[in-house]
Amino acid sequence: MTTSGPGKRSTSFRRPLLANESLHRLRRESAAELAANELNLITQHWRVGFYVVAVLVAAWVWMLSFKLGFRPPEWLAVAVLMYIPGLLSVVFRVAFKEGFRDVGWRVGSGCFWLWAYLAPLVLAAVSFAVALLFGKVTLAPRLDEQKMLDALVFKLAWLLPDSSMAGLLGQRFLFVALVGIIPGFIFAFGEELGWRGYLLTRLLQTGWPFPLLLSGLIWGIWHLPFLLLTGYGHGPVSVAMFTALTILFGVFVGWLRLISGSVFVASMAHASFNGFVQSFFGVSFVGERSWFWTGDYGIFVLIPYGFLVAWLYLTKSIQAVRLSEARLTD
Question: Which residues pair with 155 in a beta bridge?
């Protein structure tokens, strides 16, 4: 009894000391882990900013090269511009060993492909119908003198040039919807690989506020050299209107990317907008200051997308898809 008592007391003293040491060690490890996570988050924030600056600078350099006498074919000039966001995203993924799992390689459900293809078509039809109703545009008077399809990659003459106005419109619609959409999709993929396949996911993962709106704003700013250096824009008002479009349309395309898990679905929505607004409605209907009313960023185009985005937010569709990170990675 006399020999075991002190040993027991010694053990009882050591146990609290060991527990305290373990607790302190856990606290130190937890603090170190928090500091490392915070540093990693700061690094990711800087990386997002670096990517945005790199994309903006590259666009300006490419567009300014034309002012210095560089004259590539038009399709190549547009293709390189549209692939700048995607190619730079690949560079960043490789350079910083980020991998490619969160690009959005899923094919996506058929219902989302329908959304991507039909929503821009329906909204464009509504936009031009309202513009016709208010007398802001009319059917092009010499439609038969135009090309049936006047795209960047190829230009096609009318298959049945002696058709009625309705027949000519039908031919153009079918070729835009079935043929023109293919190169449009390939071109749009270059942008979407960067905007919705990289930037949007990084904004979400690093906790930037309003990531869908912010990515759309950056998308609009990226278009500045194209608007200002090519004559595509019509002064400060058109720049503001175009940026409003990229914000609104960017919310819609970003929502599609997140809910479908597919960058391809986002690319289809982008191609559908460009194809139907530019290659069908935009050349088939003309009017004074049509750029202001029915152009890519016209008033009658902005209003329907404003309603669509409001519906997505009011029905909590945006909030619901943002709460789930299941589709950010494959």
Answer: 150
Residue 304 corresponds to which tokens in the numbers above?
């329907």
* 231-271: pLDDT as tens digits: 888 999 999 999 999 999 999 999 999 999 999 999 999 99
Burial 145-184 (b: 16+ CB within 10 A, else e): eeebbebbeeeeebeeeeeeeeebbebbbebbbebbbebb
Given the DSSP bridges, would you call strands 155-156 and 285-286 parallel, antiparallel or unpaired? Answer: unpaired
Nearest-angstrom CA–CA distance, 265 and 256: 7
**C-beta of residue 133 within 8 angstroms of C-beta of residue 107:** no
Contact, 85 vs 194, CB < 8 A? yes
Q: Report the alpha-carbon distance of residue 202 to residue 50 in Å, rounded.
A: 12
Q: What is the DSSP string of 181-197?
A: HHHHHHHHHHHHHHIII
* Eight-class DSSP state of 105: B
Query: In this predicted model, what pLDDT tens digit does every residue of 114-156 receive, in sequence order?
Result: 999 999 999 999 999 999 999 999 999 989 999 999 887 778 9
The pTM (predicted TM-score) of the whole model is 0.86
